[in-house]
Amino acid sequence: MQKLLNEWRDYLASEKLIITERVSKTDGETKTLAIPKIALSEKWGLPGSEDRKLIDQFMAKIPGSTLAEKIEGIEAFVSECTDEACIEKKNIPEILSNLVFLDSLASVVFDFNARTAGILFESFVAALLRGTQVAGTQQIEDILDAEGAAVSLKFIAPNTPVEGSFELLIKAIKKYGSVRYIVCYKIVEDNEMELKFFSFTIGFENTDFMLIRQYPENKYHDRGDYVFHSYKRVTKDGDEWGKLGSKYTKWKIPVEDFQSRAGVFLGALSLGSRESITEIANRYVSHLSESLISIFNLLDSLTKNVNTYFLEDNKAAGLAAKENADNLAINIRETIL
Fold first, then answer.
1. Hey, what long-range contacts does 253-260 have (CB within 8 A, 24 or more apart)?
2. Lowest mean pLDDT among 9-13, 41-45, 206-210, 295-299
3. Among 167, 235, 321, 336, which one has the highest count of C-beta atoms within 10 angstroms of its own C-beta?
4. Residues 227 and 212 sit within 8 Å (Cβ to Cβ)
5. Predicted TM-score (pTM) of this structure
């Protein structure tokens, strides 16, 4: 059975998965597709782990080579591709990959508290960028992208400034040359969720926000007595943001100071509600072949019956699971061959 499931996983990832048959609905008939559920975990951020290998197969099918392009493609999948002609052009890998992406992102947004959601968001973006999540708390970088560049992620409420430890920022810039910040604002209005993505870079030169030595002649300030070049803002208390010393150990960039810069906005995702994501899935179900829908629904039933059998010692569920497995094996063989 495991061999068959592995074959099906390979089949999903292959380029040969092109829709060749349009499935139509008959009056009164409702089709149900059990979307593949992939447990979101920190292992998504670890290249080489089994979880990461699996999610990579789905992420690779999302169009675009950059984060901005992927956001644009997913937003088009969600909001723009609503007519029959557009939907029919989508192939099975793209449909399933986008649905798995949306379902996983919805879990981060709707199912966890802010702290847990932030950690899982790091794993999610690491997988999307084919990068590596960085463990620990004594660094400002959360992930390294596919090229090994440092990325810090912020998954925060609207109008929240971006801030952090000046000492850790300097440490990261000295190590990597610069730090790219990806900021995702969670905007809720009338129970509808929208995510807005921004990106800017901080470094010593040729970045959106540049740091310079405040006292270059003083070699004893190697700990990092820096200020933002051409960027000085004063709080209501008269404290300068962007200054490190015995009293100034934090830096902060207000929302308006980076959102107004050209090229910083990456794009937005109109997630809506949990129900909205279900409606999006329903929009595409009729364009998936009967065999594909049957396979995922049988797999869903098999999982539920196996759980019931072992947890409740339910023999009827065990027999149902065996029947599910037999039918699943037949469907996979017929679909693949």
1. 253/161, 253/162, 253/163, 253/209, 254/161, 255/159, 255/160, 255/161, 255/162, 257/231, 257/233, 258/162, 258/183, 258/198, 258/200, 258/208, 258/209, 259/198
2. 9-13
3. 321
4. yes
5. 0.71
Q: Which amino acid is at 145?
A: D
Q: Provide the 10 A C-beta neighbour count for residue 53.
A: 12
Q: In 3-state terms, what secondary structure has residue 143?
A: strand
Rounded Cα distance between 61 and 95, Å, is 9
In a domain, 27, yes or no: no
CA distance 195 to 262: 19
Confirm whether 182 is domain-assigned.
yes
Q: What's the CA angle centered on 132, arms 129 and 137, to 5 degrees?
A: 125
Query: What are residue 269's phi and psi, to 5 degrees?
Result: -120, 120
Within this chain, do residues 147 and 62 fall inside the same structural domain, yes or no?
A: yes
Q: Let me know whether 252 and 217 are in one domain.
A: yes
CB count, 10 Å around CB of 234? 9
Residue 36: predicted pLDDT: 59
- In percent, the amount of the chain with pLDDT more than 90 equals 17
Asked if residue 23 belongs to a domain, the reply is no
The Cα–Cα gap between 297 and 304 comes to 11
The partner residues of 189 in beta bridges, in order of sequence, read 192
- Residue 35: the pLDDT is 58
Together in a domain, 48 and 159: yes
Of the residues 285, 310, 327, the one at which a domain ends: 285
Asked if residue 30 is part of any domain, the answer here is no
The total number of structural domains that make up the chain: 2
> Which of the listed residues 266, 285, 304 is the one where a domain comes to its end?
285
Owner of token pair 């029919």: 88
Q: Residue 248's pLDDT is what?
A: 53
Give the structural domain span for 312. 290-336
- With 60 as the cut, is the pLDDT of residue 167 above it? yes
> Are 112 and 219 contained in the same domain?
yes
